Fold each of these.
Amino acid sequence: MFPFSYTRVSDTREAVDAGRRGGRYIAGGTTLVDLMRETVERPESLVDISGLPLREVRAIEGGGLRIGALVTMAEAAAHPTVRALFPVISQSLELSASAQLRNMATIGGNIMQRTRCTYFRDVTADCNKREPGSGCAAREGHNRAHAILGTSDACVATHPSDVAVAFAALEATVHLLGPDGERRLPFAGFLLRPGNTPNREQAVRQGELITAIEIPALPRPLKSGYLKVRDRQSYEFALTSAAVALHVRGGVIREAKVAAGGVGTVPWKLPAVERHLVGERPSAALWAAAAERAADGARPLRHNRFKPELLKRTVERQLRVVGGTK
């Protein structure tokens, strides 16, 4: 590791001030410390925010949900309000990492985590995300686990978070506090596609601190769930995943929220699938037809040409699990 300073803050304004001066926020440290050890990240100053009062989980008016940024993954997954209102969030968290990591990692840190692309983490490899303008070794290298949606010539790395897929499906909002005050950012605009600037991954301004994630109230009854397909059952990132939430009333799908993970440079919302579902009656044929739209626009690479078909099957299976089959 390279030398760095360390400051522990006691309130959010103190944290924002330290962040404005260039400090990097750290709580559980399950991602940043690894990157520092590997010399991928070299922050000069760390700001420990683990003592801030951002650990509340509560239902909000109308049946929505607010999760504080410093709630751990384990706490959020086990919380009875989360499990009752949005099982898709609990399931996505329970399928992430190991129990030890879930006990340390926070919700805010989880959605800020950087890619697990091996070329990004290998400081000897070309990586535009780590060193802009150096190239993307993954495009011509081994790219089985890489993205097929939202890619650019500059980057094909997937976003690793499972719960971010659930947040994308549910159209969450990120609450931020910065030097200019409070700000709310739709989750769809929080994580950035690589384009020509893959090194800029989130729409967070200098000094801004994530304070909470808010899930809007959705019509009830609402059934939801998360499916993760991976090479091994535990401690593995997704090849594909699907977060699904359906509101069915009078035998007709009134609202559908669907997103995919493991295939996009950001958690990938699937509006074409959602449109195909709304207004229709649940059936095996409907699930299959809707899932055919899941890979629209996919650009597979040499080693991940299996992903479009796997994505369709993943979405179809999770639609069937959440919505039932008649």
Amino acid sequence: MEFGQLRVGLVGTGPWAARVHAPGLAEHPGTVLSAVWSRRPDAAQSLAKTYDAVAAGSIDELFDQVDAIAFAVPPAVQAEIAPRAAAAGKHLILEKPIAADLPGAQRLADAVTEAGVASLVMLTLRFAPETRDWLDGINQAGGWRGGGARWLSGALLGGQYAGSAWRQDPSGGALADIGPHAFDLLDAALGRITEVLAAHCGAEDLWHVLLAHENGATSTATLTLRLPVRPTVAEVAVYGEHGYRRFSRSGTAAESYTALLDDFAAMVSSGISTHPCDVRRGVHLAWIVDQVRALTGR
């Protein structure tokens, strides 16, 4: 470990933890993967060994060895452990959704605020350099009247995430998994979302959502993880006084995670605890998901 590096503990050992979190933390100059904890000790031992980290025997043991915690676990598990981590003074890298429901998200945010620790939510698209450039151009131009997001995928039909119980749950699926990404980008491009005007969920976990923004713009989001669309369609567009501008997903999750860690290390070093993608952003996105569920009975 180099001087000044953040000692980060990883909670979770699933595909996302192994593919993105662990290598990202180990390779970033501002962080070191110090310890791993999982409810499956053998998995924690295996992943920790790969990166010369320690497999913690308990969550409290993990807390004792690190400055920050990165989560790669289901929302309900994150909402259970993350407030304890914040109370222990640990800075947090959170997955979306930050909790299984809105009350859980608010409790987590309250714990983070009370502790004064830094937090970031892993909104993969938002941290991509290409997305940041697109949003900068959108916000500088202004005058947008509406927009839409489409995320069409067959990720839950097969593959490494198809066995994820929280994603397969009727209240989860595309709404909980990719909904936060879509709502976040529409919100960032068009202004804060203030109301869910309409929502419908049909077959194949196909969601259609109509949103109102604070400046009078409206937008739509179409989401599914159960249609055999290859390659995945993940795009956002806005339209208004300056025509029509579209952005499609590009880059890799690893590149986005590196950008997140750049911001995270800078926040901790400078003592800053606020960021456009901090835990409060997670609560706002949880509120949108909660409104959609209320309209659809999910």
